[in-house]
């Protein structure tokens, strides 16, 4: 991988600009045209260097202080259907399957962020109704222990 490609990947992963044309901004930082940045990103995806490109919003910075993980007990034959349906809701920021363990039968997890706990509880009820799953729990985070961006092409790494 060339040094320019490494610089581009680093720019894509750190402080992605929230602009109408973010790839033009990144290109300006790197001395590249917007079209070249877009072409390289498409190439990285085609080569499997990048799987997906997304922006992670720091929900606390916009006033979303209630963070709820909603855990669902879903029959295995419905997991894909229910997971896809829940993931389609704009309020759901994460949706993933997990193995069950003794005394913990929940196998599908979703995450929502809202300003107030009551809103998370109301969203959970609406999601439950939409997918027909009544066995769920709403768990609220009490503290964020760590959040960091991945570091690529660092000294010694």
UniProtKB/TrEMBL annotation:
Q: Name one GO molecular function term.
A: lyase activity
**What pathway, per the record?**
Porphyrin-containing compound metabolism
Organism equals Ammonifex degensii
Residue span, Siroheme decarboxylase NirL-like HTH domain: 5-51
- What is the similarity comment for this entry? Belongs to the Ahb/Nir family.
Give a yes or no for keyword Lyase in this entry: yes
Q: Does the keyword Ubl conjugation apply?
A: no
Superkingdom is Bacteria
From the UniProt record, list the reaction(s) this protein catalyses: siroheme + 2 H(+) = 12,18-didecarboxysiroheme + 2 CO2
Q: What is this protein called?
A: siroheme decarboxylase
> InterPro entries attached here?
AsnC_trans_reg2 (IPR040523), HTH-Siroheme_Decarb (IPR050684), NirdL-like_HTH (IPR053953)
Task: Write the record's keywords in alphabetical order, separated by commas.
Answer: Lyase
Documented EC number(s): 4.1.1.111
- Domain Siroheme decarboxylase AsnC-like ligand binding residue range list: 62-146
A Pfam family in this protein? NirdL-like_HTH
């Amino acid at each position: 991988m060339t040094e320019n490609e490494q610089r581009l990947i680093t720019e894509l992963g750190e402080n992605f600009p929230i602009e109408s044309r973010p790839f033009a901004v990144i290109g300006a930082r790197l001395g590249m045209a917007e079209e070249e940045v877009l072409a390289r990103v498409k190439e990285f995806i085609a080569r499997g260097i990048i799987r997906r490109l997304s922006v992670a919003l720091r929900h606390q910075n916009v006033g979303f202080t209630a963070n709820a993980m909603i855990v669902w007990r879903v029959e295995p034959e419905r997991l894909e259907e229910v997971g896809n349906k829940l993931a389609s809701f704009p309020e759901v920021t994460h949706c993933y399957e997990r193995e069950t363990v003794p005394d913990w039968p929940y196998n599908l997890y979703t995450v929502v962020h809202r300003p107030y706990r009551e809103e998370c509880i109301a969203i959970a009820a609406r999601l439950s109704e939409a997918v027909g799953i009544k066995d769920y729990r709403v768990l609220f985070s009490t503290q964020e222990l760590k959040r960091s961006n991945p570091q690529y092409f660092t000294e010694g790494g």
